[in-house]
Every structure is written in C-alpha cells, then in structure tokens.
Write a structure and sequence with these properties.
heterodimer, A: about 550 residues, alpha/beta, four-stranded mixed beta sheet, about 35% helix, globular, disordered N terminus, B: mainly alpha, two-stranded antiparallel ribbon
Chain lengths: ~550, ~150
C-alpha cells in the first residue's frame, strides 16, 4: 500500500527531492556552486507555476514519507508487580505491543474480532473462506502454495521495525520485485492499446529529454545560466544518462539498443549479429503519457531492495499468533471501552455465541481498533481524543488475485515479478515474486485499485469484480481468457474487521487532531497505522505501538512508585 | 531557451512528477462500465448509489454489521432530513469521506471520487424514494450548493 504521510516539507528540500525524481537532481545539488544556474532559474525553466507548486507539495506529502523512527525494540523492564495491559486488536500493532509488554513483565491479554491473528496482515490461500459485509462469501480455490495478500504486500528495506520482528519470529524473507524493465506500461489510448515494455519507454523518454537538453545547450541557450565549463560536463552527463550517440543524438544504434532492447538480440554463431531497434518518436512517447509511472520505483518506499515473507505476508501475523498463543482471545467483538481511576473495563461479545456481554479488565488499555470502528464505540476519553477518533476518513482500496493454468507472463512474455501499470481501472498487474520459472499454475495480483474505481469495485459483488479484472487484464495479456481459473477479490470497505483500508489524514486533520489521538488519555492509549506518519504501512503500526507502550510503561512505573 | 522548447521541457519534466498525485485518466473503452472522474460527473442519482453508496450501505440499502456498523438507509428516521444527508455527504462522517470537491492539494485516494451538487441532490432524492422510503419532499442542487462548508 502506498503511503500518504502528510507532513509539510520545507520547500527547498521538497524541490530538491522533486528534482532527484527527475534524475536531473544532481544538477541541483550543489546550489549555485558548480553551476551559476540558480534554483529559481531552474524553476522558471520547468515552468513552476502556482498550480504545479500545489501539486509538488501534494506529491511530497504522498510519496516521501519520513524514514521509520525505529532504532531497536524497546527492551522495557520492570513492570510494576501485577500490572496488566489489555490490548484491543491482534493486528501488527497489538501483537508487537503484547510481545514487548509480556517481555517487560506485564500481564497481557488481547481481544481480537477475527478468528485469526494478523488483521490486515493477511494472505488468502486455497481453502480459505472470506465473508465480506453484506454476506458475500468467497471460497478461495487457489492451488496449494499459491496466495494473494489483500492487505500489505511489500516490506521496504528501511522499515526496520517490521523487519526486526520478522527476524525475531523466524519469518523467512525473499526479494520482492518492484521494478521490472520487462513488465509493461499500458494505456488504452496509446500505441493502439498495445502495451509497451517499461524498458522501451524509460530509454526513449530519457533519450529524447537528454537530446533536447543537449541541443539546447549546444545552441547556446543556457549560456546565461551555465558556464562553458559546466556545459561540457552537462553534455557528457546527458550522453551517459540518455544513451546518446557521439553527436549527442538519441538514434537507432547499439548505444540506444543497449537500453531499449534490440530488434534482434545478439547471440552466437553465424545468425547472431544483433539488429538495433528503432526508438519511438519523442512526440509518441510524450503523447502516450506512459512516462507517468516511470518514477514509481524511485519513490523512497519502493526503492530496491524490498522484501516479502516467503509464503505470503500473512506469515508474520501467523508467527505472532503462535508466539502469543494463549494471550489472544479470538472472535471477541468489542462493544464498549470504559475507564475509571484504576483501570479499564472492556465489554465484548463472543461472535460464535452472541448475546452475552463479557468484560475484560486491565490497569491500562492499548486500543489498536481501526478508527473506522472505534469512532462508533462508546469510550470515555477526553473530547479532544474523541474528536480525533472521529476525524479520519478511510480510503477505499480493492485487490484481486487471479489464478491461471500456467505462468504465461513468464513463459510467453518473460516477465518475472514486478508490476505492469495501466490506465484501465485495474490500475496495475503485479506478477508473483516467488516460484520463478516454475511450471504449473500461478496467481497474480490482477488489480490494485484506489479512488473512484475502488469505490465502484467495492460496490460490485466479488464475482463481478473478478470478471471485470479478467476483462480489463485481457487487454494487456490476451492469454487471460484461455488460462484464467479462479479469483478472489477484497474490497476493503466490505471488510468486517476494518470497514475501510486505512486512515487518510489530511494536513488540516493531522495538525488539529493527530497529537490528541496519540496522547495517553487517562489509562487508554491508541496505536496502529492510523496513529503514525506512515499510514497504511505496517511500519506505522509497529512504531506507533512501541511509542505508545513506552509511554504507558513510564506512567505505570511512575504510578507504582508514587 | 525558446518558448517552444521551454514548453516541451516543462511538459516532459512535470510529467514525471505528477504520476502519484493525479489519478490516472482512465480510458473508456466501449465495454467500460467503470468511470473516470469526467465521465462520472454525469452519472445520475441511481448510478451514484449503485457505484459508490452500496459499497458500504449495501445494494438493498439495509447497511451491514461487522466489528462496526454501516447504517441502513431504510427505516432510518435521519432520512427525514435531506439536509442532514447532504451534510454527511458533503462533510463526510467518521470513516466516511467527504464527497465534496476540495480545493488545494490533490489527494490520490479521494480526489477523483467527488460528486456535483446535482449528483448529491440526485442520490438523496433517489434514496428517499426507493428501498421502501416514501418521502414526498425533494432537495435541489441549489440547496446542496448553499450547504458547502
């Protein structure tokens, strides 16, 4: 899932990052030193208007989340004798808290709505059943070993917190492929709807930009801004960056084909002479808008290396569940949270035998219930926290897993992992980063949808969603219709345990409510991705839990001394 | 730099930058039952209900219960006030996002799912006259318009 941390970047830094994204960033890094070109000149050059400034800022708040604050596990020690913490929710936040608090000596008890641990950390595998709100039930028909992660599916290498728990719990990881130069970029309106290889668009976009800038430089049009000496460096770098020939042209030949691919690849023997390919025209590349997804893998969270647990993201939640065996009460639907001077009473219902109110009590309560649900529950906290709980709308997202009779994307198209992007409503197709080159069946992510189309797909039945994903996907992979076997589709607003995908903080809401949400209120503290600057990421859940229990522990210890 | 070059460069450079803040302009093939922001702006009240509202409030408008509740839009006394309904759609409520178009930075998650005042009036009037609801009064786009925050 993406991250939309909405902090305000200091403008200069934000722009530098924006330039880094264009790969022309190094032009900017040494402000006014190597180049006489000033920041504002460059801004003018790319036509930065008020409107685009707003978008830069929007993008900053979308793509560039802060690095995880995680340094190491809290190593809390010395829980007051007999002190207890009641944890609501056995997702990543709740289970990290339970793991650490138990270690510190607290009596820990966890209430979980689902019949399984993990929450949104979850894999759907063959034999699994999922009933969404409205009663629509799906029976996953995938073959053994095949799965889909309806929730989080990738672990950035700098999400140290969640990675550290993978290590502690013995969850093996493998590489998750984000960028695949042989995957597709597709638009129904470009190149007659024919998908283009990422490699081709990437090389041609860069090549043409480089050539254009080189010509502009050679024509003396940058003389006022760039010294002659630096112009030489600029030209040299553009030749390298854009795969230009000796005349600084982006043309058919070995240099460009080494980036964009050959018409006939080099080989051995007599029939082996490589045939270079013809670049697409600058006009066609620009007009296609396929450049729109070129930078995806350059966003901080998607930069190589990324990981995934072997066997599915759900392996983390399952491992936590085993580790905390006996502490988690499943099928427990929380109906009320009430604190007094000495502790917190939580009323819940056993969903397998409803009608009876049970009460659990702790000296402290760490509540990780998503705000979508918590905002409906009676809870006696301050008005400020109460307002914060009610201030965060939840994003719609839909993921659809499709099983095919064979891994045609590998066998026919040589796509091993990675993501194809499309402007069709399915938005992207992601190929499994596991089981490479194996024969037999395969499951791919046939749609990962946000925004309006996610609302629409949520409003469909699961069967309709799957049918649509197969229809749209066939425009990119014609093999779909022959090879499709079965699918599962999860629309997160229909998920009974979250009623939405994740909390979307606007800048206004964050400045007004975020601190109030995260403060300990009497004996209650909240944690989860919604209580972090890393929304939708498991790292947000981990770090918010660690932060909250650290503060609970301080208070508990101070209270015991008093 | 010539203004033409300037323009091309601007397009090229900006293009790279916008991928994640602009929702993709979804293509509309002939079989396309899905909408882009542009095509959706002409959807009527019933289509808005079928495309968005029923995701949570369910196709029969009876709502749903899980760990929390999606309220029913049938037998619900709050429906007596179309203005209340308009306020919820315009402002959002708890986990339900606002469907009013918003100025300022674009939001990847909600930006393309906005409704015009006419659509908001349309879907309210549709709900209040279907699913067993029999309200005689109607809300107009003008009334919705006057309620914007």
């Amino acid at each position: 899932m993406g991250s939309i941390a909405s902090f305000r970047l200091e403008p200069k830094r934000g722009l530098a990052r924006v330039f880094a994204l264009t790969r022309l960033g190094y032009l900017m890094e040494d402000d006014g030193c190597k180049f006489s070109m000033k920041r504002r000149d460059l801004l003018r050059m790319i036509g930065l208007t008020a409107g685009t400034a707003a978008m830069y800022q929007a993008m900053s708040s979308l793509g560039f989340a802060a690095e995880s604050t995680f340094k190491q596990s809290p190593q809390l020690q010395g829980a007051p004798k007999g002190a207890s913490v009641l944890i609501l929710g056995a997702g990543i936040a709740g289970m990290v808290a339970a793991y650490e608090l138990r270690q510190a000596g607290y009596k820990v008890q966890v209430l979980e709505y689902n019949h399984r641990p993990g929450g949104r950390n979850w894999s759907l595998r063959g034999g699994d059943t999922f009933t969404e709100l409205g009663g629509f039930t799906q029976h996953c028909q995938f073959d053994p070993g095949l799965y889909i992660n309806p929730g989080p599916w990738r672990l950035p290498h700098h999400h140290h917190g969640i990675l550290s728990y993978c290590k502690k719990l013995g969850v093996p990881l493998e590489a998750y492929v984000q960028v695949n130069h042989n995957a597709y970029l597709h638009s129904a309106n470009a190149f007659g709807g024919k998908p283009q290889r990422y490699r081709t668009i990437n090389a041609d976009y860069r090549g043409h930009v480089a050539e254009l800038l080189a010509k502009t430089t050679q024509q003396g049009k940058l003389d006022a801004q760039v010294s002659k000496e630096d112009q030489e460096l600029l030209l040299e770098s553009l030749r390298e960056w854009g795969a230009l020939d000796k005349n600084l042209g982006y043309v058919r030949g070995a240099t460009s084909s080494d980036r964009r691919g050959y018409e006939q690849d080099p080989g051995g023997g007599l029939s082996a002479k490589p045939v270079p390919s013809e670049p697409l025209s600058a006009k066609d590349v620009l007009g296609s808008r396929l450049w729109a997804n070129l930078a995806a893998g350059e966003i901080y969270e998607f930069q190589t290396t990324l990981f995934q647990p072997v066997g599915g993201m759900g392996r983390i939640g399952e491992a936590f569940g085993r580790e905390l065996k006996g502490l988690i009460r499943y099928n427990a639907k929380v109906t009320s949270i009430q604190q007094d001077d000495h502790g917190v009473n939580v009323t819940y219902e056993d969903t397998t035998s409803p009608g009876h109110a049970h009460v659990a009590r702790g000296d402290w309560c760490l509540c990780t219930i998503p705000l979508s649900i918590l905002s409906q529950l009676p809870i006696n906290v301050s008005q400020a926290m109460s307002d914060a709980i009610a201030a965060v709308p939840y994003a719609a997202a839909v993921k659809i897993g499709l099983q095919f009779k064979r891994r045609f994307w590998e066998e026919d198209e040589h796509i091993y992992g990675g993501i194809s992007y499309t402007d069709l409503p399915i938005s992207n197709i992601s190929y499994p980063s596991t089981g490479f080159h194996s024969s037999g069946k395969g499951v791919l992510l046939g749609a990962y949808i946000w925004g309006l189309n996610a609302f629409e797909f949520t409003a469909m039945t699961p069967e309709q969603r799957i049918r649509k994903a197969v229809e749209y996907g066939s425009q990119i992979h014609p093999q779909y219709s022959r090879e499709f076997e079965s699918g599962v589709a999860v629309g997160w607003h229909r998920s009974p345990f979250t009623m939405g995908c994740f909390g979307v903080w606007s800048e206004e809401a964050r400045s007004q409510h975020y601190d109030n949400l995260c403060q300990i209120d009497g004996r209650i503290a909240l944690a989860g991705e919604h209580a972090s600057y890393l929304p939708a990421w498991q790292e947000g859940a981990v770090t918010s839990a660690i932060d909250a229990i650290g503060r609970i522990h301080q208070r508990a210890v101070a209270g015991a001394r008093a | 730099m010539s203004s033409k070059t300037n323009k091309v460069l601007r397009q090229m450079l900006c293009g790279v930058l916008l991928w994640c803040c602009l929702a993709p302009a979804h293509a509309q093939s002939s079989d396309n039952a899905s909408y882009s922001r542009t095509s959706f702006s002409s959807a009527n009240g019933e289509v808005v209900f079928r495309s968005i509202c029923q995701g949570c409030h369910m196709p029969d408008a009876k709502g749903a219960k899980g760990a929390g509740t999606y309220p029913a839009l049938t037998d619900n006394p709050r429906l007596a006030s179309p203005n209340y309904m308009a306020a919820v759609i315009l402002n959002g409520r708890r986990d339900m996002p606002s469907f009013a178009p918003k100025p300022g930075p674009k939001d990847r998650f909600f930006d393309d799912a906005t409704l015009t005042d006419e659509q908001i009036a349309g879907v309210i009037n549709y709900i209040r006259t279907h699913f067993g609801n029999r309200y005689d009064d109607r809300i107009s786009a003008q009334e919705v318009s006057a309620m914007h925050p």
